[in-house]
Amino acid sequence: MTATARPDRSTAAIDVRDLHKSFGPIEVLKGIDFHVDHGEVVCVIGPSGSGKSTLLRCVNQLEQADSGQILVEGVDVCDPETDLDAVRSRIGIVFQSFNLFPHMNVLRNLTVAQEKVKKRSKKEAIEIARANLEKVGLSGRENVYPAHLSGGQQQRVAIARALSMDPDMMLFDEPTSALDPELVGDVLEVMKTLASEGMTMMVVTHEMGFAREVGDKLVFMDGGVIVEEGDPRVVLADPQHERTQAFLSKVL
């Protein structure tokens, strides 16, 4: 990308600076530099193996970067002195797989971390859980076990579980990629609602319609670098880089 004057990023929710990450001899992230402002929805797209999910997992330090900085609300999560548990408590994350506890019903899936991490009373945790189940359209499913829910319902439970921890921001790692096509819409509607309420979101996705409609910024990655970024409607309609053009010609 052409170098431009760095905007003021001192108040960014997430600020990634010259981030590098390798797995053995393979460099997966090659100097990533971008930011997510408070209340902004940033969609990250690109082919498989481009480093999208690794970037997202580095933000929450599920993967440890080799060099560079990741500032989450001003705190460098790459600093070994940082209290990661305190930072992670402000970040909700939803994966491709739902990662629900199969031996717990829906309600317990939503309350266990509240009680153990947030130290909430059982009564308060249940009230918050039920409010978030209503938000994702699953009121009345509190006593159902994950195996008896569709994939789309399980993913909405996973979103409700993350919201029950009162995060400042949400990370989504291809949250609809494991779902049957007819189940995708319900999950995307929940994400649209969160965006409309001002939730800061970083979304790794293949859903170009969602990126166009909801995203404030689109980041296209390939080969461990950011190739192009900008307004999703502009980038999707008129990509400037030939690699972006080639990718979008196959997915749009």
Structure characterization notes:
The chain has 252 residues and is an alpha/beta fold. Helix content is 36%, strand content 24%. It has nine helices and ten strands. The protein has helices spanning 52-59, 84-88, 106-116, 122-135, 151-163, 181-196, 208-214, 232-237, 242-251, and strands spanning 14-23, 26-36, 41-45, 67-72, 75-76, 91-94, 169-173, 200-204, 217-222, 225-230. The strands form two sheets. It has a six-stranded mixed beta sheet with strand order 6-7-8-3-9-10, sandwiched between helices. A four-stranded antiparallel beta sheet has the order 2-1-4-5, with helices on one face. Strand 9 (217-222) and strand 10 form a beta hairpin. Helix 3 packs parallel to helix 5 (151-163), helix 4 (122-135) packs across helix 5 and helix 5 packs parallel to helix 6. The chain is globular. Residues 1-5 have low confidence and may be disordered.
Defining key terms:
252 residues; alpha/beta; 6-stranded mixed beta sheet; 4-stranded antiparallel beta sheet
Quick recap of the structure?
This protein has 252 residues and is of the alpha/beta class. 36% of the residues lie in helices and 24% in strands. Helix 3 (106-116) crosses helix 4 (122-135).
